[in-house]
Amino acid sequence: MIIHPVLGLLLIDLLLFLAAVFVFDKSAHRWESLLLSALFFASGMPALIYQVVWQRVLFAIYGVNVESVAVVVSAFMLGLGLGSLLGGRLSARFPRHGILLFGACEMGVAVFGILSLRIFHWAASFTAGSSLLHVILFSLLLLLLPTMLMGATLPLLVEHLVGRSGRVGLSVSRLYFVNTLGSAVACYFCAQFLLRDFGLSGSVRIAALLNVIVGLTAFVYGQSRRATTPQHATSGQAIAQFAPAISLPMAMFLAALSGCISLGFEIVWFRVFSIASMDRAPAFSLLLATFLAGVAAGAYLAEHFTHDVSPKRVLHVIGVMMIVAGAISCYLPPLVASLMGRKIPYLSSVPLFFLTAALVGAVMPLLCQLSVNPGEQAGRGVSLIYVSNIAGAVVGSLGIGFVLMQYFSLRQIALLLGVSAIATGMLIVSQQELRFRWPPLWAASLGLAALALVVVAPRQYALLYEKLAFGGRYQEMGEFAHIVENRNGVICTTSLGALFGGSVYDGYFRIDPQNDANGTVRAFFVSAVHPAPKRMLMIGLASGSWGQIFVNNPNVESVEAVEINPGYLQLISQYPIVRSLLENPKLHLHIDDGRRWLIAHPEARYDFIVANTTYHWRDHSTNLLSAEFLQMIRQHLNPGGIYYFNSTGSFESMATALREFPYGLRVVNLLMVSDSPIVVDRARWESDLREFRIDGRPLFPQDDAGAQKAFAKFLSLADSLKAPATYIGLETSATLRPRLKRYSTITDDNMGAEWGPDEFIAWHDVP
Fold it and tell me: Please, how many CA atoms are within 13 Å of residue 722, restricted to the half-sphere of its CB?
C-alpha cells in the first residue's frame, strides 16, 4: 500500500511526539506533560476545522472575490492575536488556574461552534451584499469572540507548563508543536474525508464535540490536587539570573518578520498547488497540512537540539535556518512544475515544502526561549511574541496577497520572499549582547551564497505555467501567448486562442460557426427559446465570446456582466473578434463575485440569466450550483424568465436544478430551467440566425458555402428535440427528470463534488 505523501509527513511528526514524551522526557512530570500535550493536540483540530468551515460560509455570504477573502482571513488571525494578549494577561493574573481557564475557553468555543452556522446565516440576512467596510466590521464581530478564545489557550497553558518544567523554550515548543500538529491532522482529514462525508454542519458538530471533550478533561484535571498545588519549577534565583539574549521588543519584531515571510510563502505555494491540482478544494488543505506539519516539527526539533546550547549559538541557529529557508523557497515553485512536466504527481514535492516550513516554524519558540523570563509572567511574554507573529502574518496576508500579487508576478514575489528571509537571517546572526554587530565571516559567506542561489533562480521559472497546466503535454501545447497574473489568479491563452483560468480550460477567443470549438451554438440558441430577452445577466465573462453574441443580438437591450477577475478584460482587448465588446453600450460590466452581486442587488430582474461557468468540481463552484443559489436566481427572474447554466456534465447539478424549477431543457451540456414552459421556436431561430451580425458583419453570408453548411448544422440542434436524446442534442425535463432522480441534491452544506477524490477528475482535452 502506498502512503499518501502528506500522511507520511504527519506520521513523522507523530513519531517525534512519541519520542518527545517517552524517550527524551525524563522529568517527574512526564505523564502530566503527556496529558497537557494530548489536550492541546486535540484543541488544535477543531480550531482548524472551524477556520475552514467558517471561511467557507463567510465567502458564500460576502463573496469569493479577493477583497472578501483577505478580510475574512485577516479577521480570523486578528482575533487569534487579540486572544493571545488576553491569555497573557489572564495567565499573569491567575497563574495557578491556567488549566481551568483553558478548559473554559474550550467550552466557550464549543458553544459558539455549535451555534456558528445559525449565527452566520442570521447575520447574512442583515449584511450580505454590504460594502467592503461593512464586510470588515461584520467579519470582525462574527469571528472576534471564538478566535479570541482560541488564541488565549497557548499563553494559558505555557504559564502552567513553565511552572512545571522551568523552561520557556521547552514549554512553548512542546505546546506549539502538538497544537500545530493537531491542526495539520485536521487539515488532512478535511481534505480526505471530513468535508466530503459530513459537510459543513457535520464537520462543525465534530469540532464542537472535540472542544467539549478537551474542556471537560481540562476541568477534571484542573480540579485535582496535583494540578492545583503550586509547584513552580524555576527557583527565584534562577529567575533573577535569567539574562535575555535578545530584548523582548526585538524578539517581537523578528517574530513579526518571520510571520510575514511565512504567510508569504504559504500564499505563493498555494497558487502553485492550486494550478497543479486544477483548482481542487482539497489542494489548500493538503498544502496547509504540509505547512503546519513542517512548522510543528521545526518548533520541536529546534528547541530539543538547542536547549543546552549557549544563547549566542541559538541565535546563529535561528539565523541559519532563515537563510537556508530563503534559498530553498525560491526553487519550490519550479520544482513542482518540473515534476509535473515529467508526469510526476505534484504532491511528490511536499517533503521540501515540509522542510522549508520547519526551518521557518522553529523561529518563534526559539525567540521565546531567548527573550522570555521563565517566571510567573512567562505566559504574558510568550503572548506578546505570539501576537507579533500573528500581526506579521496579517500584514503578509494583506500586503502580499492583496497588494503585491496585483502588481508582481509569482516569480518576482517568490524571489522577494527568498531575499527577505535571507536578510532576516542575517539580521538575527548580527544580534550580540542586545545590540547589532557585524555578522561573523562564516555567516556573511553563507548569506552571500544564499543570495547567489536566488540570483540564478529565475531561469528555473521558464515555462512554469505551461508545465503546471499541461503536465507532460507542455511541449505539445506550446508556450502560452499571453499570461495575466493578478491577486485574483492566473489567466493564460495558447497561440490558438484557447483560454485557461489557472490550469482549467475556460473557452476560446473565437466566434466562428464553421469552426465552433467554443460551442457558441449554445449561446445563439437563446433566441430559439425566448422571443425578447431584453434584459440579460451574465455571471462570468471569461473570453467575452458569449458576451459578444448577446450584445449583438438585436432583441437584447441590456447585458449586465459580473466577472470576478478583471484580468480577463486585459485579454479581451487583445483579440479583434471580441475587442468591441467592452465598448458596446449594451454591456454593463461589474467586477465582483456573482453570488455576492445578486445578494447586493435584490431588486434586479432579468429575462435571461446565463452562467457559462467553470467545472463543477473546482473550488467554490458549488456557490453557483447549489439549491440555495438556484432559489436566489428565481428571485431575479422576470415572469417567463430562464436561467441557463453550464452543468459541465454534472448529473447532480442538473438534478438539483430540476428539483427547484418545474421546467427544464438540456442544451448539450447546459441546462435551461424556468417556472414557465420552455418552448423551442425553430422558425424564429432560423430567421434570427440569418440576420445575425457581429460588428455589422453577417455571420452566415448567403454566398459562403462553408457558412451555409455551418448554418444547417446549427439548425440541426433544434431538430434534435424530436430525435432520441443524445449528449450533443436537446432533451426536455420530461425525460431528464426520471433519469436524474437517483442523483443527490447539491447544497451549500454538502458542496457537491468539490471535495471528491482526485480520481473523479479526468483530463479535459482542449477542443
Answer: 7
> Residue 187 is placed in which grid cell?
487539515
Whole-model pTM: value is: 0.90
In this prediction, residue 760 has a pLDDT band, given cuts at 50, 70 and 90, of very low
First to last CA, the chain: 37
Burial environment of residue 362 by CB neighbours within 10 A (0 to 12, 13 to 18, 19 or more): buried
Task: Tell me the backbone φ, ψ of residue 519, rounded to 5 degrees.
Answer: 65, 35
| C-alpha span between 737 and 716 (Å, rounded) | 24
* Nearest C-alpha neighbor of 71 from the set 392, 395, 390, 398: 398
| Of 174, 150, 152, the residue nearest 162 (C-alpha) | 174
Cβ atoms within 10 Å, residue 455: 12
- Cβ(412)–Cβ(285) below 8 Å: no
Please give the backbone phi and psi of residue 172, each rounded to the nearest 5 degrees, phi first. -65, -45
| Contact of 574 with 587, CB cutoff 8 Å | no
The candidate with the shortest Cα–Cα distance to 629, out of 53, 191, 36, 63, is 63
In DSSP notation, 451-509 reads HHHHHHGGGGGTTHHHHHHHGGGHHHH---SEEEEETTEEEEE-TT-EEEETTEEEEES
> How far is residue 189's CA from residue 621's CA, in Å, rounded to a whole number?
21
Residue 242 is classified by DSSP as: -
pLDDT of residue 28 exceeding 90, the answer is: no
Which pLDDT does position 243 carry in this prediction? 67
CA distance 598 to 629: 10
Q: Cβ(86)–Cβ(76) under 8 Å?
A: no
Greater pLDDT, 71 or 742: 742
Average predicted confidence (pLDDT) for the chain: 88
State percent of the chain over pLDDT 90. 61
Q: How far is residue 443's CA from residue 11's CA, in Å, rounded to a whole number?
A: 34
Each residue of 408-424: pLDDT tens digit?
999 999 999 999 999 99
Supply φ then ψ for residue 636, to 5 degrees. Answer: -110, 10
C-alpha cell at 549: 453574441
What mean pLDDT do residues 424-450 have? 86
Please state, for a pLDDT cut of 70, what percent of the chain lies above it.
90
Using CA atoms, how far residue 581 sits from 497, 546, 758, in Å, is: 17, 10, 37
Cα 81–chain centre separation: 21
CA distance 305 to 293: 18
Euclidean distance between CA atoms 493 and 597, whole angstroms: 27
